[in-house]
# Entry
Amino acid sequence: MNNAQITAKGEKYVMNTYKRIPVAFVKGEGSWVWDADGNKYLDFLSGLAVNCLGYNHPVMVKAISEQAAKIMHTSNLYWIKQQVELAQVLVSQSCLGKAFFCNSGGEANESAIKLARKYAKARMGEGKYGIITFTNSFHGRTLATMAATGQTKYHKGFEPMPEGFGYAKFGDLEDLKNKITESTCAVMLEPIQGEGGINVSSQEFLKGVRKLCDQKGLLLIFDEVQCGIGRTGKFFAHQNFGVKPDVLTLAKSLAGGFPIGAMLASDEAASGFGPGDHASTFGGSHLACSTALAVVNHILDSGVMEHILNMGAYLMEEFQGLKDKYPFIKEVRGMGLMIGIQLEADGNWVLDQCQKEGLIINCVGGNVLRLLPTYVVTKEEANLAVGILDSVLAKL
# Structure
């Protein structure tokens, strides 16, 4: 089937929950993908920050193939060797205490919300259940994680939202102080907001949040579903700021394209859960954890993060050059290979034109171009992407 045929059949049989672009990708290699019509694209979105090592990376292919031939799933009624090994790696890198595995970022954040409430109620009383998040945040699509998301457009039509969530202005420590009440048990934030427009926290703000949580006896939850696992050039994004959370959530790049999510917590915070308090049938399977182990170890041991830092710095410099050239570029911001270009123009038009020229990017909020290249992107590919974007912006 070609793109048009797949689109027509999809519109007939698949539920209409995405505004899909009428293209179906059928093959990938490195930072490149091909659609059903044979067109080739440079992917600067990497499956929404998921396909971190690109497509068909030999480390992943080997891990999946070998494990699939042995055993894929047994459930968490039994110990899973690869899950234990992955937990050890993540805990040692984070300096936290315990890991819980699930299947997605939304599930990881749901787990963190449940843990925060269970922990607080057991230690501080039934009245402790409130969680403060921030404007322009995004934490998932379950009812609880939608309620935690500080963007009302995601709430519309699903009201009433689960209670217990308040929203402070991102980056505003005084506003956070004013939002804390007697019922507050935790503060939850993304060190770098992805869906909100690649908004980078300041070190001063994060350190202030950490100090405030310590003073008030609140758990600090960092949502690193999009910005974690090397995306910023550090294994965890919070390591760029020198601030340690009590709870950390991960997904997307964790297994380079295979579904997995994780929640890490300090030993103290993790003590809030006991047997039966939370679970995931598919979470942390043999196959998922084998793949994640291969991806994580490759990122840690093969110079990948140095490459991310170098390519991120190079791309930021090139995009700053475009900002100097085009007055309708308001700001270029980001960290590592997580870059946002804010326009005073229609970003969706730019996205469409880039796709026609063979470059895949994303647009959030209508005017922020979101670029999330693979960790294996080369300088030649970076130059090609900058050139395509330059030619498209010139048409504005």
Notes: The chain has a mean pLDDT of 97. The two ends are 35 Å apart (CA to CA). The CA atoms of residues 321 and 336 lie 17 Å apart. Residues 304-325 form the longest helix (22 residues).
